[in-house]
Amino acid sequence: MRVRQHVNPLSQPFRQPLELPDWRLIYTDPEQPLHLDIGCAKGRFLLTIAHQEPHWNFLGLEIRKPLVEQANHWRIEKGLTNLYFLMAQANYHLSSILASFPPAVLQRVTIQFPDPWFKRKQQKRRVVQPDLVQVIADYLQPGGEVFLQSDVFAVAVAMYGHFREQPQFQTQGEFLSENPLGIPTERELAVLQKGLPVYRFLLKRRADAT
Ligand SMILES: C[S@@+](CC[C@H](N)C(=O)[O-])C[C@H]1O[C@@H](n2cnc3c(N)ncnc32)[C@H](O)[C@@H]1O
Question: Is the pTM value of this prediction over 0.85?
Answer without folding.
Answer: yes
